Amino acid sequence: MSLELLNTLNWEKTPLLPVIAQEVGSGNVLMLAYMNEEALTLTLKTGLAHYYSRSRQALWKKGETSGHFQYIKEVYLDCDSDTLLLKVEQIGVACHTGRSSCFFNRIDTQEAPKEEAKEIAAYSITDKIYHIIQERKHANPKTSYVASLLHKGENTILKKVVEEAGEFCFAYKDANKDEMVYEAADLMFHTLVALGAKDIHPSLISKELERRFGLGGIEEKNSRNEH
């Protein structure tokens, strides 16, 4: 694919371009994502859709984890040169929920989505929980526990984190391994709710741990003090 398109874009003005992915055969709109210059370059060079994840703050190739790749057939730039349209051949499904399109929540009717979500085993449990938390931001607090926490606000969320941390400590003191696992899971879940409320993807925690890996404790603390 031609890379001449890159020369027409002002990346300083728009460092992240909104990108609409549309299935080339049916015309169905599949998803909205973002590309930085590196993602678009890789997309044009490889013919496979690459995006930039704002939540993970990292480049990602669509389908790299799930196998649900997007093969690029056509690329269009809009009249203002700040939005892209990709016409793609979608392998599998486009949405992390296991639906064919990310646009399944119809808001002008009370009808439930007609297409059932399919389990995508390749996604990690923390990634699944993070996306569920994002979805629950728009759910009914009367029918969803996560939605009720988010609706009540940060004091309630943080109270639960502290409460679960205390429960874990009591289980630890009692040397009860089963309870330690149970309470640690509760603590991690409510910490993920707190992170999700602030749109912080758990992969950023993994990246921070990777950054620290191999550093001595004193060296790591000194590196924090330098910032």
Spell out the blueprint of helices and strands:
Blueprint: E1 17-23, E2 29-35, H1 37-46, E3 50-53, E4 58-61, E5 70-77, E6 84-90, H2 125-136, H3 145-152, H4 154-173, H5 177-197, H6 203-212, H7 217-226
Parallel strand pairs: 1-6
Antiparallel strand pairs: 1-2, 3-4, 5-6
Helix pairs in contact: 2-5, 4-5
InterPro entries: His_synth_HisIE, HisE, PRA-CH, PRib-ATP_PPHydrolase-like, PRib_AMP_CycHydrolase_dom, PRib_AMP_CycHydrolase_sf
Organism: Sulfurospirillum barnesii (strain ATCC 700032 / DSM 10660 / SES-3)
EC number: 3.5.4.19, 3.6.1.31
Number of helices: 7
* Major sheet size, sense and barrel closure: 4 strands, mixed
What characteristic shape results from the CA principal axes? globular
Mean residue pLDDT = 87
Spell out the helices and strands N to C.
EEHEEEEHHHHHH
Proportion of residues in extended strands? 15-25%
Q: Give me the CATH fold name of the largest domain.
A: Helix Hairpins
Rg of Cα set? 21 Å
Name given to the CATH architecture of the largest domain: Orthogonal Bundle
Unreliable sequence segments: none
Strand order of the largest sheet: 2-1-6-5
* Overall domain count: 2
Structural class: alpha+beta
**Helical content band:** 40-55%
Class of the largest domain, according to the CATH hierarchy?
Mainly Alpha
Measured between the Cα atoms of the first and last residue, the distance is 42 Å
* Overall number of strands: 6
Sum this structure up briefly.
By secondary structure, the protein is α+β, with helices and mostly antiparallel strands.
